[in-house]
Specification:
Elements (H helix, E strand, L loop, with lengths): L1 E5 L16 H11 L3 E3 L6 H8 L2 E3 L2 E3 L3 E2 L2 E2 L3 E9 L5 E6 L2 H12 L17 H10 L3 E4 L9 H4 L3 H5 L8 E3 L6 H4 L9 E3 L16 E5 L5 H9 L5 E7 L11 E2 L8 H6 L10 E2 L2 H8 L13 E3 L3 H9 L6 H14 L2 H7 L14 H11 L3 E4 L8 E5 L6 E5 L12
Parallel strand pairs: 1-2, 2-7, 10-11, 13-16
Antiparallel strand pairs: 1-12, 3-4, 4-7, 5-6, 7-8, 8-9, 12-13, 14-15, 17-18, 18-19
Helix pairs in contact: 11-12, 11-14
């Protein structure tokens, strides 16, 4: 069977998250997006774990009871948590059971000042030591948003071994983050044997956040062992697709000032000693960091699945209508499309484009053009940087007309907002 999975999110017990990041809302919104398996996030937080424990469990997977926000769901959850090491690098752990989660909580508690107050705890441990604890708990581990210039593996280290030491062989995946894709990461030879994960790191349940990046796995059933086998690519289980936003759209794709957003080449930034002419800090972009680390031509290993670039459906509709993705008119069309095609993934990936002409409502012609343009790759992006998203332009083949959107200014300079 094929499942769609977003393995990195947060609950309302993490800092800077929506109060709506609760199990009923997450179950509903994941189902509407077309995600069958969702990471719980924050599973070391005892209050969040209590709610998870109340759900039906089978083979390490938790089945949400009842309906989410009054609607039937088919969402399942697997235990996950993001932790921060003493160098501020973030790591994603995927756990097999409540009992192992409790063991991990007890082993981490003495090293953390905030494990009982923050869903994403900080630990006075190195990456190697965290990996040792993960192995003892039979958890999978890998770096989160590995290329972003904040709280990331390659922001503070030049190699996996430098971070994980003798435990490097236990690392089974790398989460790419919004400003990188497989074409970036496969220019680094040490990553070729690892599975790439594309997750949302969502801090709110809204359609433009939850599952904005996700993974498609081939498994026999939905269980922890099957997910583990897929990530480790064993017994025929494997990832078959990575889905994520185009890297240039990411907020840290190019080196740029975090105050005025002026972009700089790597050479210019170095000459200026990473200070903008306005006095602000120039933050090194993911593209430049990958160029520094690259040691091969980027040829993908045979096991690497395709990478599909998408942006959330609400944003595509917003492009066509020249409105905010959260506006009432955009939401109305988004809901009508989901009523017709069941999930957002069906609209963006799976439904034949001809089916859109047979919908039971009059789909705005501009919206249809925008969906077709994106699915046909008619896209041009002015890269993001310094904490500001890139500018997307879609061109409809029939008319050559460009539909343009520039996202709003950076919402906040937060190490949590990736």
């Amino acid at each position: 069977m094929i499942i769609n999975s977003d393995l990195h999110i947060h609950s309302h017990y993490s800092a800077a998250t929506s109060p709506r990041m609760d199990l009923p809302t997450l179950a509903t919104e994941a189902s509407r997006k077309g995600i069958q398996l969702l990471g719980t996030g924050d599973c070391l937080h005892q209050k969040w774990l209590k709610g998870i424990r109340e759900q039906e469990e089978k083979k390490g997977i938790f089945y949400f009871k009842g309906t989410g926000e009054g609607k039937d769901t088919n969402t399942t959850f697997v235990l996950t948590v993001e932790v921060e090491d003493m160098k501020r690098v973030h790591h994603l752990l995927i756990l097999p059971s409540i009992s192992k989660t409790e063991e991990l909580y007890e082993s981490f508690r003495k090293y953390s000042p905030d494990i009982d107050s923050n869903g994403r705890p900080s630990l006075r441990l190195s990456g190697e030591e965290i990996a040792e604890h993960a192995k003892d708990a039979e958890a999978l581990i890998g770096p989160c948003h590995a290329f972003t210039p904040w709280t990331a593996l390659y922001a503070y280290h030049n190699s996996l071994r430098e971070c994980y030491g003798d435990m490097v062989g236990y690392v089974s995946f790398v989460e790419l983050g919004l400003s990188a894709d497989s074409s970036y990461a496969d220019r680094i030879k040490e990553l070729h044997e690892l599975t790439f994960l594309t997750n949302s790191d969502a801090h709110s349940p809204y359609p433009i956040r939850l599952a904005r990046e996700f993974n498609r796995f081939q498994v026999e059933d939905i269980s922890f062992d099957e997910l583990k086998a897929a990530i480790e690519r064993k017994r025929g289980r494997k990832p078959v697709l990575n889905v994520g936003v185009p890297p240039k759209e990411g907020k840290y794709n190019e080196s740029a000032c975090i105050r005025c957003y002026k972009h700089y080449s790597l050479r210019e930034a170095m000459i200026r000693k990473w200070r903008c002419e306005c006095g602000g800090l120039i933050k090194k972009g993911v593209r430049d960091r990958v160029n520094e680390l690259a040691d091969c031509d980027g040829t993908h290993p045979e096991h690497r699945p395709p990478y599909l670039h998408l942006i959330p459906l609400a944003e595509i509709i917003g492009l066509a209508l020249h409105k905010s993705a959260s506006s009432k008119s955009v939401t109305k069309i988004w809901e009508s499309l989901l009523a017709e095609f069941c999930t957002e993934v069906n609209v963006l990936v799976d439904a034949p484009i001809d089916d859109f002409h047979a919908t039971n409502f009059n789909l705005d012609a501009g919206v249809l053009k925008a969906i077709k343009a994106f699915r046909e790759g008619e896209i041009r992006i002015i890269p993001g940087g310094g904490g500001k998203y890139g500018v997307i332009k879609l061109k409809a083949k029939e008319t050559g007309e460009e539909i343009e959107v520039e996202r709003g200014q950076k919402e906040q300079l937060s190490l949590l907002d990736f």
